[in-house]
Amino acid sequence: MKTFIESVAEAYLNNEQADALERYCFVFPNKRACTMFHHHTGELMRRRGMGGVQPASMAIHDFVNAQMPTIEVDRLEAIFLLYQSYRRTVTESGGGDVDFNDVDMALVDPSELFPNVTALREIKASYLTEAQMDAIVRAWGARAATDAFGADGEISRSLERFWMHISRPLTAKRGNNHSLGVKFVRLWQVLEGVYRDFHKRLADKGLHYMGAAYRQLAETLSDRRPESFPYRRYVFVGFSLLTPAEKRIFHSLRKMRAPDGTPMADFYWDNASPAFRHPGLSGAKLINSMVSEFPSIYQCVEPIATFPEIHIAGVSSRVGQARIAGETAATIYRRTVDEHPDASADDINSMMLHNAVVLPDEELMAATLHSMPPEIGVVNITMGYKLRLTEVASLVSAVVKMQIRGRIAAKDGRKWFLAEDVLQVLGHPLIQERALGEALLATRMVRYSRRVVVDTAMFSSENLSTISPVFSYVQTHGLDAEPVLNYLTLLLDWLVPGRESKGECRESKGDGQEMNGDEPVYDIDGTAVLPDGASSVVSNSVERTIVARYRHAVSHLRKLCRKYLTDKDINITDTTVFRLIQQMVEGETVNFKGRPLKGFQIMGVLETRSIDFENMVL
What we know:
Oligomer: single chain
Structural class: alpha/beta
Strand order of the largest sheet: 2-1-5-6
Largest sheet: 4 strands, parallel
Distance between the termini: 22 Å
Strand content: 5-15%
Helix content: 40-55%
């Protein structure tokens, strides 16, 4: 049976001229679906002996960015600009964490979202429509809806008591102006100003964040002329529940006509499963409503008659689940080999393309990889490897904790760290791999001293010279971030000895390209090795890539500090710099250079959208 993406590709090859396909662009929820689309399209064109160029494709994220006159802001720079907006707004008004992406994707009016919560009439009534109340009843039951909103839809006494608890400190004649309730309300009062000032600062610099891009495109797309688009038609494939911004974008494109009178947009929904014909599934109803609202030009999605065969294994341990996943993958591989005895190893790897292990949690990836037997051969990882799961990240986290809790004695100016933090760093595998003897010696010295704090002068002795750079106390001068950044650079150089700092690192492309000219990212199948003569404590490809990513983070933060840290803008402490580096890097992923169209696939849940599999291990 044809896959969903293959059906869409075949429909266009059957009904459109080859020269017309060159002027079409297929838009998917993710880049992985784009890869599969070109794979199927190429196969179909080769079988038919068709010439010409394949149609273009892009993920929805790239489609929105391509329509914008501005560029997407870097996450760290957005933090600096957002804090500037917050400082300015708080100063002018005298007066948590809100995701402005969600505000814009939902097309919410910020003046209505951020009201003064002391006016209880603004929040006391329920703004839920009758349809929304019905949805809550279906999902949570009538009792839960009544408990929250009352029988008539009004907000219940329990929620009213919450808001009264929040607002009472503001109306009292005497009270604690630093209470949590007061801080909550005052933050909420300034958020609209922060939101608008943040947008203005981004616009002045020619930048945007993705939520703002979606909102701007949704609000302005209907005014654009079809001739302004680089493609004659956009084909949206495999989307599910749409945000209000996405829905308005789809509506605007659906109404447009290309210069030759043909539709500017086409839509295809993956609703072939029999689950979409089940009357009791609310999610299926929503997708089917999208099918009616945004119909397809060609009816090509063939319904699936039966549900797939499902086997459930009850394993409570996460490691046990990973082991079972590896064993199941091995069983699927052996069955494929037995069914095709004359196939080469390369052909078998190609057949494994439509088999996947899907991991809802990226922390399971390492255990799953280790549980897969070597006989499986090529494994393609599309979900990336979280930096916070690496040994480099755990070392940096331990060092950051040690530095943040370190102190300088007021009496004699001696610098010290807490003994428990020092022992944690000394016991780290990367420290012991780099200098095991000195790490053990320092550990004995700390334990035998029986002191709560450790004087950093201890590491200046010749016996501990190798590890002394790690335990250098960072002393900032005023609010200068340079000492912290220099220390982090020194730490990264220490992890990769024999290599001088390159200064400003180039950003990782995340696709297996070189990160720094002489630091390659290795294939996931392990075929690449370290350069000849390379000596590094970080001896495997993943950890070396992590070090390069940290280098880039330090370099980028240094540029932003020089750009924004002035007396009239932002002052930053050493603790803030440490935490910024830790948070900005640990949220990133390392993407492997693999073989995307061969081998068993290891994917995240969202990466499976629009893609069909013969076997899936979840």
